[in-house]
Task: structure prediction
Amino acid sequence: VELAGFEATAVPHMDTLYDAALRLTGDRAAAQDLTQETMLRALRSFSTFRPGTNCKAWLLRIQYNLFCTQYRKDRRLPLVWLDSPDEPSVEPPSYEPGPEEQAVREMDRERVRRAIALLPEEFRIAVTLVDIHGLSCAEAAGVVGVPRGTILSRLHRARRRLERLLTPELGRVQADDL
Amino acid sequence: MTCEQFQDRLTAFSLGELEPHEAVAAREHVARCSDCASRALLDRQLTALVRSTAVATPDAVRARIMTALRNEARGTGQRPRRRHWLSLGAAAGLAAAALAAAMLLVPAPGSSSPLTAAWAAYRTQPMMLQWDDSTQARLTAVLGPAANTPDLRSFGYQVKGAGGRMLAGHLAAVTEYRDMAGQRVTFLRWKGDLPEIASARPSRDPGIAAARWGPTGSVWWASHGIVYCLIGGVDQRLLYEVTEHLQGGEGG
Result:
């Protein structure tokens, strides 16, 4: 297997895989193993990746399948993890912080993480794929294996639920902003 | 578009996933309804908040994964024919073993112990071996008859590879078997003292230690200055039976 092409195309998405694995498994050790196993499996089948398509979505689909077949039963609930010095919070690389983001930066990320972690699995996965990692609804639908409209409706319900849970945080953003 | 209709489509609107004609109607609505405009702003803020919780891969994890990828790339590059059996049994077995090892984190021997290295190798490097005469000669020089590959076909184990590898500075003979179900069993031998780990259960026979981590079991024992270690995603009792067979084979 040629590692160079894989390193240029797939390895840059490792942070996405690790973050999504944490949210899927709810456990650091399992997330590390799931990320590694996903990368190894992707390397082995890299010849089936079609250049020009979304590599991040391709990797997330491999990871989701692995999670379903081998990790789901071991998920620990609820997922709560703390910021640790070796696991810094990052904005996804494509993300340009706007004024809202500047305002929320100081907020308690932990509370937001917990709110996301406590969402039902289907909602949490939709939020992880689309809102956090920037997949389109169609791409997320391909990862999970449901129609695009289902992803959209899960996202909609997840966001409304988060809105209720995070009203204090959002209120603060608005007050600071206006 | 009414307020209710807009709010039903709020998420799709924010994501730019509305059908073109609906997107036009939604934009028109939000331009003249301050209520819905502030709902849309709130939705944007919510997304920013959610997105800000993403975390990066810890450096140590990244390094471990890159090592595994390099080993994999090197391995398959040299031994393409190994893939078919690997992708069937080994991938599943490896994931199970990796998960088991993730749960383990029992008081393990120091990282300088060959046993730890053996476990790490079992977790991360399922396909590591190739027949190689010079390695075999070195192994025989160090380990004597223990370097030979035992025949375990009576247990349904087929040899999938054999060779040598360095485990924490010890040259170890490694044999990889698959059972009928494709489960991996790895048999290792190196020169040294019997490693002790706190979680190991004393077995019915003195001199044999065993530990089970999730679905993966292991048994190790020492004889004549050589440590023998079996690791596999199979029934622990079966590992004992293999152990007994192997101890019988070496004459005690």
User: Anything to note?
Assistant: Confidence is low (pLDDT under 50) at residues 76-97, 173-178 of chain A. The CA atoms of residues 127 and 145 of chain A lie 15 Å apart. Chain A touches chain B through 67 residues (CB under 8 Å).
